[in-house]
Amino acid sequence: MSTRLATGGRLLNRGDAIRFSFNGQTLKGVQGDTLASALLANDQMLVGRSFKYHRPRGIVAAGPEEPNALVNLGTEGAFEPNQRATTTELFEDLTATSQNHWPSLEFDVGAINAKLARFMPAGFYYKMFIHPRPLWKHVYEPFIRQAAGLGKAPKGRDADSYEHFYAHCDVLVVGGGIAGLTAAHAAAQTGARVIVLEQTAHWGGRAPVDGGTVDGLPVDKVVDDLVSALIDMPNVTLRLRTMGAGVYDHGYVLGYERLTDHAPERAGPRHRLWRIRAGHTITATGAIERPLSFAGNDVPGVMLAASVRDYAVNFGVSVGDRTVVVTNNDDAYRTAIALNDAGLTVPAILDARVLPVDSPLMAAAKEAGIRVMMGHGIAKVMGSKRVTGVAVCAQAGEGAVLEEIACDAVAMSGGWSPVVHLWSHCGGKLLWDTDFAMFRPDVDKAPLGADGRAFVSPAGAANGHFGLQEILGDAHAMGQGAARATGFKPKSTAAPAGDGIEEAAMAPVWLMPQGAGKALRGKAWLDYQNDVKVSDVQLAAQEGFESVEHAKRYTTLGMATDQGKLSNINGLAILSDALDQPIPQTGTTTFRPPYTPISMGAIGGEARGDVFQPIRRTPMHDWHDENGADWEPVGQWRRPYAYVRSGETVHDAVMRETQNVRENLGLLDASTLGKLVVKGPDAGKFLDMLYTNMMSTLKPGKCRYGLMCDENGFLIDDGVVARIDDQTFLCHTTTGGAERIHAHMEEWLQTEWWDWQVYVANVTEQYAQVAVVGPNARAALEAMGGMDVSKDALGFMEWADGTLGGFDVRAYRISFSGELSYEIAVRASEGQAFWDALMAVGAALGVMPYGTEALHILRAEKGFIMIGDETDGTVIPQDLGLHWALSKKKDDYLGKRAHLRSHMADPNRWKLVGLLTEDGSVLPDGAYAVADGTNANGQRNMQGRVTSSYHSPNLGKGIAMGLVLHGPDRMGEVLAFPGTDGKTYKARIVDPVFYDPDGEKQNV
Questions:
Q1: Which among 596, 653, 831, 931 has the fewest CB atoms less than 10 Å away?
Q2: Could you give the C-alpha distances from 672 to 634, 677, 704, 768, 850, in angstroms and in order?
Q3: What mean pLDDT is predicted for residues 973-984?
Q4: How far apart are CA 154 and CA 820, in angstroms?
């Protein structure tokens, strides 16, 4: 049985007992335990069930590679599924429950699947669930949905908070083992800014467990000294419990810090997501021990040898009284010796190798009285919910049992694989190391930055070095190299000298025994969580899934929550053997971030609740609120829909405001319109590619209306562009489009035209902007005093800088209403004062503020389109009669080639028209015009739809705009629009310009 040892446990504070519960049972641990070590100390070997066959599962590992020990943690607002017991630090009153079983962990009805395993091999669902067809909806799909997923989704609102943190450094070291600390120290001594991330709660990695000396000192003492030295350096930041999650282009690295998981009573955020820009990144992420594939290697009590050693040394936990060690390398001997030193029994070490001479570790094991059986392996493990013994066989045979050994634990070691995930995230290549049977980083093919130089370096075991001397030398060199790559000059210093034990060569063992028959292969597990066996991978190869990526998806090998950390290399080797080709030819699957799962809360950060999407307010927001604004959400902004006076309805207010603009003077808060500064020698060329019309020919002081399409030719935005000087443009966008269009510009600049000299800045919130509109607009500005705003001084579609009423302004002579109109931009800090000044001088001129609905009616009266109303992501400029805005002088622009597609040039595309109901009523917005006949689906044919519809107080009737089949050619025809109210509306096709068709009012 597994239990707590009387001695050992270097990470424990035995005097601080902790109570916790597992599946409702109260258990005891001590300070420093992980949930996994505490469960083992309480002899809780069974911790879960596998996904497919619901086989009993026990703890296999001691770190993030653990595939089995996934539990539900916490309750209500603190509930979180799929948490690894091996990385969860124990705390008082921790509550955990096991997953993937019913009704209980000990008795799981789903275990019947194991009895049906022969009928559910790899890929059976692809073949079974397609016939007979009628069963899919009522049987197969409900069954699959019920079975899908691990754990339970939280139901309560997350009670914790999260945050994002931004950091910059010269050298980032991921991994706080002996290699990471050595590399960090070497880099920091040059003066470089260094950040070190370690995913566990302790520094040193495996070195303090495995022992050895550095410069004559015990390695654990050296670790303490290195940490102390780094803490004292002002240019070094050390972070424990922080995982390097992913490496991306341009030195961008994500870190995931668990701040209070181990101490939930503490105030502050639970998790922190680090967004780091590093000049150079060192991946000192260590290596993962591989399991061996033999029948019954999934029985609870079968564990990785190094993890068995970790539990004994770090946590003072014995995983069994009698532990059989099975291996193909020398490292597992350290586990046997550690267990023997702890007073535990190791009946035998089964070594698949046959060595001509005993290695030092083998000799030490024999000297300790441990039986070593070379050339032997495990035929099968006995027991179901825990190990009771092993059947020993010759590794070179087919599994004939030579001997049975009673035991309650098995420590297996199939060699080590460097953790190359971060190295590979951004394009680092791998090479196959035949000596250690592993993929290691190819340092000559590192991830490259924009300058063509490597920006990631591996160090230590992550670089394929396992001897202490080799690890230290490599880490020291990588640390100095990283500092040198970021512009620092390291001194010529020697690397620390490590003294370890020489090891004999390992032997690749992918199946035990090597000639295992079908029965044994069908019980030899590769992926513990997804129940993928050796026989499944062989079946995939037999059925033609020869690509490693195809075999992965056919078998689900490596697709569990551990992402194949334990299973991938063994699975690749089995696939290669089945295909009769070398492992490098088979290749690896793709490593994708994050390295281990990140909480959704950390990804969201502070963006939750009231700040999930912060409400954006203009400088005049409070004034609007105090003066009856009926608010409308527009993007992230709140804009006044109308200003409702006492005794008015919203509709009444809209009608009043719309009429007043046409008759007197209206003020509109236009601060929300997007304002993007595009600057640089190539700015004109850049805008020529973004807009459908020519912008490079625009002269300073002039404005031009422009349309913007995506690469598929669909209209995505419109607005007025003003040229400020030879290299500077100010592009106005729709209110909801500023961030989207800014991102659109940056995407093309960074991915397609990266060498163009252009800079884009979003200055939307730097300015308050007021539209001064109506017959009295010029009089109001002249009353303020200052710049000349006459027709001759500031013509239509021109702009000028000046002063008005003592305010520095930029005045644009543009109109979205068809009236005499100016848009005046001032500093955001002066927006309210400027608004107040306009209201004061406008009092004698009939001034009224007006909202977005009046704005919409005014523009509809003039036939002006609105992005989002007349467009829906499928509309092109030609549909809206905007051919004049499509330049014929330019060779190319975004969307031009798309407009040549047959579908875009189809004469049957619906075109923009005006619509007037015969009785003056308002057409339902979005209503469809019906046509004769039905389509292939038996639905009524349609020939158009309403895009905008309003009551116009200036015209005294309803007006609408719509897209209609052959609309411009059908002027005067009457269409029928069925409404949702049961009424059919009759509307006549007319010109979309309803008011002042000659534009006389805006040109006064």
A1: 931
A2: 9, 15, 20, 8, 15
A3: 94
A4: 58
Helix ranges (H only) for 707-817 are 738-751, 777-784
Q: What is the pLDDT of residues 359-377, one digit of tens each?
A: 999 999 999 999 999 999 9
Find, among 200, 802, 754, the residue nearest to 450 by Cα. 754
Q: Which parts of 486-595 fold into alpha helices (H)?
A: 518-521, 534-542, 548-555, 568-579, 583-586
340: which residues sit within 8 A by CB, 6+ positions away? 346, 365, 368, 369, 370
- Please give the Cα distance from 566 to 481 (Å, whole number): 31
Instruction: Give the percent of the chain with pLDDT over 70.
Output: 100
Q: Which residues are bridge partners to 376 per DSSP?
A: 394
Q: Round to whole Å and give the CA distance between 410 and 652.
A: 82
pLDDT tens digits for range 120-155? 778 777 777 777 878 888 888 887 787 777 888 888
Would you state the structure tokens that stand for residue 130, as one six-digit string? Answer: 């397609």
CA 848 to chain centre: 48
Q: Is 547 exposed, middle or buried (0-12, 13-18, 19+ CB in 10 A)?
A: middle
Q: Say which residues have a Cβ less than 8 Å from residue 318's Cβ, sequence separation at least 6.
A: 2, 3, 4, 5, 311, 312, 339, 342, 344
Rounded to an integer, the average pLDDT of 90-107 is 93
Contact 815, 666 (CB under 8 A): no
pLDDT of 424 strictly over 90? yes
Predicted pLDDT at 559: 85
- Cα–Cα dist 170/489, whole Å: 13
Q: How confident is the model at residue 864 (pLDDT cuts 50, 70, 90)?
A: very high
Both tokens of 971, joined, read: 């002027």
Residue identified by tokens 């002006």 is 864
Quote the tokens at residue 606.
Answer: 């502070």
Report the run of H or E that residue 186 belongs to, with start and end: helix 178-188
Is the distance from CB of 670 to CB of 624 less than 8 angstroms? no
Residue 566 and residue 61 in contact, taking contact as beta carbons nearer than 8 Å: yes
Pairing of strands 438-441, 456-458: unpaired
Which ranges of 368-466 does DSSP label H, i.e. alpha helix? Answer: 421-425
667 forms beta bridges with 772, 849
How far is it, in rounded angstroms, from Cα 668 to Cα 838? 11
At 495-507, the pLDDT tens digits run 999 987 889 999 9
pTM: predicted TM-score of the whole model, two decimal places:
0.85
Alpha carbons 864 and 870: distance in angstroms, whole number:
9
* Amino acid found at 173: V
Across 718-739, average pLDDT: 96
For residue 830, the Cα-to-chain-centroid distance in whole angstroms is: 40
Give the H/E segment covering residue 364.
helix 360-367
Mean pLDDT value of segment 171-178:
98
d(CA 179, CA 21): 37
Q: How many residues does the chain have?
A: 1004
Whose structure tokens read 């931009």? 825
Q: What is the mean pLDDT of residues 483-497?
A: 94
The answer to whether the beta carbons of residues 534 and 296 sit under 8 Å apart is no
**Tokens representing 557?**
């090998």
**CB under 8 Å to 265, separation ≥6 — which residues?**
none
CB atoms within 10 A of CB 659: 18
Coil vs helix vs strand at 409: strand
| Strand pairing report for 703-709 and 715-725 | antiparallel
Q: How many CB atoms lie within 10 A of CB 290?
A: 27
Asked if pLDDT for residue 883 goes beyond 90, the answer is yes
For the chain, first and last CA: distance in Å? 96
DSSP E strands in 354-415: the ranges are 372-374, 376-382, 389-394, 403-406, 409-413
pLDDT of residue 916: 97
Give the 3-state secondary structure of residue 951.
strand
Query: Strand runs (DSSP E) across 2-161, as ranges?
Result: 3-4, 13-22, 25-31, 46-49, 56-58, 70-73, 80-84, 94-98
